[in-house]
Amino acid sequence: MLKQLTALEGLPGNLNPNPRCAPINTFTDQPSMEHHPSMADLPYEVLTYILFKAPVKTLIKLRSVSKPLLSLIDSPCFIRLHLRYSIATSSNVTVILRRESELFSVSLESLNAADELAHPLMCYSNRIRVLGSANGLLCITNVAEDIAFWNPSIKKHKVLPFLPVDRPCDHGMSVCGARAYGFGYDSAHDDYKLVRISQFVDLESEGFASEVKVFSLRANEWRRVEEMNYVLCYLKKNGTLACGALHWVVTKKFKLDEVDQIVSFDLTDENFRELPLPKCLEDQRVQIEVGALGDCVSVTADYHDVRVDVWVMKEYRVKESWFMLFSIARTEVVGSFKYLRPLAYSKSGKEVLLVVDNQRLVWYDLRKKRVKNVKILGMPDLFEAEICLASLVPVEASRRGYGKKHNLSEENHKKKRDDFLSEGFKLVL
Q1: Residue 416 φ then ψ, to 5°
Q2: In the chain, where are the structural domains located?
Q3: Distances in Å between the alpha carbon of 152 and those of 95, 320, 352?
Q4: Which of 370, 305, 375 lies closest to 338, judged by CA?
Q5: Beta strands in 217-313 (DSSP E)
Q6: Fewer CB within a 10 Å sphere, N or C end of the chain?
Q7: Start-end of H helices in 260-394
Q8: Would you say 297 and 242 are in contact if contact means Cβ atoms under 8 Å apart?
């Protein structure tokens, strides 16, 4: 079994993560069968240390090998450790491509073939929408507004309680002008949240009102939060997740000549705040789109027939930390295009994957200022793209600190184990 484990891609061959652990033989040794150590001889911590760097597909296969491996890989501690490693090393990153009611997944590192995903919602011969992604969970919905949190890697999902729209009759608003969603992770409460913004417009007075509701996975319920006093610029545009907050492009008034700006919704304190723009974009009537690159908020400024500038905010909410990552002229480098959006950095950080006209993907070299076309087997000819981690994260809420009282000695044992694994994780990085 040890020989089979170490033959798997991505698993180290000689590892002793902590001097306090008993020494183990080099896995490349070839002892006779009667002296070959069994998997049970490995300490729990050492086996965890070996496996948490493995790809998700490998771990899913290993779950069926034995009950001890199943118990280990399904444990909350291991799932958290694997997720932290994936985020810190930009591993297990996938690109989700959506065409009408079809969803496809392709590895960001290889970008070689698109695998079709069997999503859990009825599509009613219509389209499926991806509302967002966080830690390997996708939030998807259909035309009937059924909504599900779904982990395509482990093929588990949870359908959310249906939520009707409450029209704010007391405001005299009768027209639903926009509906937007945002999905993200609240790290302070270990909770996954979906935000729904419904806006109502009075066409005569140009006034507006909004209804904002948040679904909490831990509470398994929708609740109403403070109203958003801004107008959404783009219909059905999802909120962008970055730095623990969701972001939308908005204006302060329901008027065509208003300057665009960005508003954020903090997933922990559940408050709306304005996000400062680069100084050169503050008073310009330029079309902007908010996105995320790596761990940072990004803004794409589209100067129509001239060029597209991409800005990145190095330090969240610090206006002076904005810097221009690159600028692409409309007729140069990429070729003629109508729409361009940065999607993700390459693993080296030297290239940016761009979506062009929702029809093709290209790598943009930040140093050479050149592009390289991406050819993916099975890629749809027209698509929307979303970045998603492949992870083991469950779609059921974490109940740590809730419910029945646990045995104190067991809790202490788990804490010591988590502390050990955290130290090992830091050593790896």
Answers
A1: -60, -40
A2: 2-87+403-428
A3: 12, 39, 25
A4: 305
A5: 221-224, 231-232, 240-242, 245-251, 261-266, 272-275, 287-293, 296-302, 307-313
A6: C
A7: none
A8: yes
- Yes or no: say if 152 and 117 are a contact pair by the CB < 8 Å rule: yes
Q: How far is CA 246 from CA 239, 259, 316, in A?
A: 5, 20, 13
- Model pTM? 0.83
Lowest mean pLDDT among 139-148, 283-292, 420-429: 420-429
Q: Minimal CA–CA distance to 199: which of 234, 162, 223?
A: 234
Decide: helix, strand or coil at residue 369: coil
pLDDT at 74 over 80: yes
Nearest alpha-carbon partner for 424 in 36, 12, 67? 12
pLDDT of residue 21: 34
Q: Taking a C-beta distance cutoff of 8 angstroms, is the pair 156, 120 a contact?
A: no
Contact 300, 289 (CB under 8 A): yes
CA atoms within 13 A on the CB side of 312: 15
Identify which of 247, 249, 254 has the alpha carbon closest to the alpha carbon of residue 233. Answer: 249
